[in-house]
Write a structure and sequence with these properties.
By secondary structure, the protein is mainly alpha-helical. 49% of the residues lie in helices and 7% in strands. The chain is built from 9 helices and 5 strands. Strands 2-4-3 form a 3-stranded antiparallel beta sheet. A two-stranded parallel ribbon has the order 1-5. Helix 3 (41-48) packs across helix 4. The protein starts with 9 loop residues before the first strand and ends with a helix.
C-alpha cells in the first residue's frame, strides 16, 4: 500500500486487505475513525453495532493490514486508542485481466461499499433534509448525468473532480470559514454494460 494521490488516501492494492475490509463492521470502524478521530473499542462499539470485544478483534485485524494503528493514549491510559492511518482509502480492480484474485477482491469490497452507502440518500432525505436552513437546502440534492466517453476520458473526469475537491479535503481545520459544515459528496461512476452499447443506446 502507498499514498500518492491528492487526498492523501491510503491506496489498497493487496487483495487480502480488500477482502478484510469488505465487512460491514470493519467499514463502519474505519469510517468512524476517519470522521471522528482516535477512539477506543468501547467508544466505537455502539456506532459500529458490535460488542467492545468484537470491535477490538476487528481493529486488530484492520491493523494487521495497515489500515489502523495505535493512537496517542487518552486520559485513561489503560484503554488502547486507535486511529486511521489516512483520512480516506481507495482501491481499484487491477488492469491485468489475468489477476482474477485481485479483480474478485475489488468486486467484493465494491459491493459491500455500495450496500453500505445505498440507503444514505434516503436516510438523509428523511432525517436531515427537513432540518436544513434555506441556504443549505438550496445547495443540497443530487445530479444524475449521463455522458458517453472513453475509459481514458472517464479517468480524466475523475481526475478533474479530485483536482477541484483536493484543497477542501486537505485543508486544516483552522482554515475552514465560519459556518462551514460537513458535506457528503457521493460519486458513482457506473459505465454501461457492453450489451447496452451494442444495442445502440446514446
Amino acid at each position: 500500500m502507498n499514498t500518492g494521490n491528492r487526498f492523501g488516501d491510503i491506496e489498497i492494492t493487496d487483495p487480502h486487505a480488500m477482502r478484510a475490509l469488505a465487512h460491514p463492521v470493519r467499514l463502519a470502524i474505519l469510517e468512524q475513525l476517519q470522521r471522528h478521530g482516535p477512539a477506543t473499542a468501547t467508544q466505537l462499539s455502539p456506532a459500529v453495532g458490535a460488542t467492545p470485544s468484537v470491535t477490538s478483534w476487528h481493529l486488530r485485524h484492520l491493523a494487521g493490514f495497515g489500515l489502523v494503528r495505535d493512537a496517542e493514549p487518552g486520559p485513561d491510559r489503560r484503554q488502547r486508542r486507535w486511529e486511521a492511518v489516512a483520512r480516506g482509502f481507495r482501491f481499484e480492480a487491477p488492469a491485468d485481466p489475468d489477476d482474477e484474485e485481485g479483480r474478485s477482491a475489488a468486486r467484493v469490497l465494491s459491493r459491500e461499499m455500495f450496500l453500505r452507502s445505498g440507503d444514505l440518500p434516503s436516510r438523509w432525505a428523511t432525517e436531515v433534509e427537513p432540518t436544513l436552513e434555506p441556504e443549505w437546502l438550496r445547495r443540497a440534492g443530487l445530479a444524475d448525468t449521463r455522458v458517453v466517453v472513453s475509459a481514458d476520458e472517464l479517468a480524466a473526469i475523475e481526475d478533474a473532480i479530485e483536482h477541484i475537491l483536493a484543497p477542501y479535503v486537505t485543508r486544516d481545520e483552522a482554515a475552514r470559514p465560519a459556518g462551514a459544515r460537513g458535506v457528503r459528496l457521493l460519486r458513482y461512476a457506473l459505465p454501461d454494460g457492453a450489451e447496452e452499447q451494442a444495442g445502440g443506446t446514446s
